[in-house]
From TrEMBL:
Keyword Cytoplasm set for record: yes
Cofactor requirement: Zn(2+); Fe(3+)
Signal peptide extent: none
Protein name: Imidazolonepropionase
Residues holding Zn(2+): 71, 73, 228, 302
Organism this protein belongs to: Streptomyces clavifer
Keyword annotations from UniProtKB, A to Z: Cytoplasm, Histidine metabolism, Hydrolase, Iron, Metal-binding, Zinc
Pathway assignment: Amino-acid degradation; L-histidine degradation into L-glutamate; N-formimidoyl-L-glutamate from L-histidine: step 3/3
Length: 390
């Protein structure tokens, strides 16, 4: 294999405290990284770098791990511009808008859906996202959900079955029947194509008992749980996620003290999705309280045509710092190592020997610029599995 040394990195975020200055970000000043094939083989101070076959000069810029976006909904067709416009004129967000996207998605061809996933993943990659989870949830029939997952799996390993996004319009008068469908024939058809099972536990979607039924059925089929929890109001989602040792409770916008304690003590990551609060003009989740309680926090885009039509992790970092009480260091860590934790992955989200060579070189001298220079395209170069892709 050919080794490549990336040298003259002014500021390297490793997310490995043992490598750097002892901070959670594991910062190294004047650093180098050596990659071999799809792996990182060395990271440290430039003057100690081992010889390599090739060299890339980072020109005194900052490098961080590629972003890990652990929550997106990319298998969809159409958009919801009118709904967004109405919201910006004062109409509140409601989960009912999901039905618009369900109709458009069902009507779309496989090729159209696959091209959409590819387009948004490419858009994210250009901004530094090298790992991206994505979900079904706009099909809501056995065939349409299985199709969405098959298409998602062509593009990413992190695929989530969200048949329990809302009660299908076909079952409007029989929500219990829809839960039976999701936990029975739909799960049978979908489980082979997914790693995760998710449910939208919220008023207007699925209550605590229904969510528990969905998640436990998925677990019995070998899927791992994650939960859309406490987005629009208080509810049982977070407690259920922690009780079932879900990898992540996502949204976490409306939390009680008991919810914060549970997330602080359990292994379930609190995944915050500030694009959704931005695009629905909702209150911000309190990242500060979660961090102070000891919770692991992830930041993700929630990219979807209804509540958060952004693929930009830098945008989410800037919002989290400005409006959710996170420091720039915490937000960058949440968008990299936090996302990896929310996907229970140790091979991404860090720059250390053995990790995947997923790297983001910033057109800036420090990772802090991601929050300091909001809206500015700072992704200078991106490596995914050792290949330079942007
Ligand atoms: O995570 N909350 C549920 N699902 C998405 C929104 C989906 C939509 O509005 O199309 C979310 O915000
Ligand atoms: Fe979501």
């Amino acid at each position: 294999m050919t080794t490549t040394a990336i040298t003259d990195i002014a500021c390297l975020v490793t997310n490995d405290p043992s490598l750097g200055d002892g901070s959670p970000l594991g910062l190294i000043r004047d650093a180098a990284v050596v990659i071999d094939g799809d792996r990182i083989v060395w990271a440290g101070e430039s003057n100690r770098a081992p010889a390599a076959d090739k060299a890339v000069d980072a020109g005194g810029r900052a490098m961080i791990p590629g972003f890990v976006d652990s929550h997106s909904h990319l298998v969809f067709a159409g958009d919801r511009t009118q709904e967004f416009n109405a919201r910006m004129s004062g109409r509140p967000y409601s989960a009912g808008g999901i039905r618009t996207t369900v109709a458009a998605t069902r009507a779309a061809s496989d090729d159209e859906l696959s091209a959409n996933v590819a387009r948004y993943l490419a858009e994210a990659l250009r901004q530094g996202t090298t790992t991206c989870e994505t979900k079904s949830g706009y099909g809501l029939t056995v065939e349409d959900e299985a199709r969405a997952l098959r298409i998602a799996a062509r593009h990413t390993d992190e695929v989530t079955f969200l048949g329990a996004h809302i009660v299908s319009p076909d079952y409007a008068d029989d929500p219990a029947g829809y839960v039976d469908l999701v936990t029975g024939p739909m799960l049978d058809a979908c489980a082979p194509h997914a790693r995760w099972i998710d449910v939208f536990c919220e008023q207007g979607a699925f209550d605590g008992d229904q969510a528990r039924a969905v998640l436990t059925a998925g677990i019995a089929k070998g899927l791992h749980p994650r939960v859309h929890a406490n987005q629009l109001g208080h509810g049982p989602g977070v407690q259920l996620a922690v009780e079932l040792d879900a990898a992540s409770a996502d949204h976490c916008t409306h939390l009680t003290d008991a919810d914060i304690d549970a997330l602080g003590q359990g292994d379930t990551v609190a995944t915050l999705l500030p694009g959704a609060e931005f695009s629905t003009r909702a209150v911000w989740p309190d990242a500060r309280r979660l961090l102070d309680a000891g919770a692991t926090v992830a930041l993700s885009t929630d990219c979807n045509p209804g509540s958060s039509f952004t693929s930009s992790m830098p945008f989410c970092i800037a919002l989290a710092v400005r409006d959710m009480g996170m420091t720039p260091d915490e937000a960058v860590r949440a968008a990299t190592a936090g996302g990896a934790a929310a996907l229970r992955r140790t091979d991404v989200g860090r720059i250390a020997p053995g990790a995947r060579a997923d790297l983001l070189l910033l057109d800036a001298p420090s990772h802090v610029h991601l929050a300091y220079r909001p809206g500015v395209p700072l992704a200078d170069a991106v490596w995914q599995r050792g290949a330079r892709v942007a």
